[in-house]
What does this fold into?
Amino acid sequence: MRKSALLLSLILGVTSAYAGTNINGNVESRCTVNTDTAGYYGNPNAYTLTTLPASAGQVPLVRIDTSLANAYKAQISYPTSFSSSPSLGDTVVWTGTVAVDQTSSSDMSGYQAASTTANGGAMRIYPLTIAGATWFSIASVATYGGGQQKAFPGGSYTAVVVAECIAQ
Amino acid sequence: MYRPVILWLLLCGSVAAHDMTPTYPKWKMSFIPSANMTTMQIFNKRADVEWYQIGVFDKEWNSIPFVTRYKILNIKHLQRVKFDVYVNKTNAELVEYICSTSKLRGNDNFKPIVESRICSRFK
It folds into this structure.
């Protein structure tokens, strides 16, 4: 009886040794694009739409989070056309700025200086060299009339800010 | 010491976010002998978006033909969706990026809206 109990415990011991499994996993990088503040246009005069707070607008804020350094670059663009608007017979002049508004680490303070531009300056490219969160502000101004200060036709206007996270 | 915790809170606490994984996908054998496949995953935390368009590109950002269940995926708020992307074996060597782009709807007057785009890369 004792002999068989000993044998059983040996078998169970061996079995439990084989039942152990390794749990494997890889830490993969991840990029998340967050729309923290939607923003809206103020209409300080007939021919201008602007996100500047001084003109009753609100600048959109986009946050990009990366979990590993050097895995992604952020590409942020201010609008250069309306995605929906009333029929516009004249030229709209677009200006804007993309800037780093806040960072989760002071090590990221060089992001704005290290950024480059593309698409005629409308897109700003930031290599995300440090893991963490970066808030980008995107100011946008649309002026109607090709410098002639013509009034925008009445109606609804929508423009699109593009926030991209591209794996490097 | 607290930085990883803060980062984790930021990543978990996002209320209007779009993410896609893996960052660096790899081609696998598929049940179609002439095609390679890879599996991607999108998590939609944007309450204002429920459609995401998939695109496959070479390193010059030229579109490459691909097959997936839907090229524009309906992903409800806080839903995670896995999808397979199939590319024929000849084109698979050219693929550099798989991207998901939020599809936006019109909104109220005078509001700029944010289009988010995330691209994973074959290395």
Remarks:
- Chain B has one domain: 15-121.
- The CA atoms of residues 56 and 97 of chain B lie 6 Å apart.
- Strands of chain B lie at 17-21, 28-29, 35-44, 51-57, 72-74, 79-88, 97-102, 113-121.
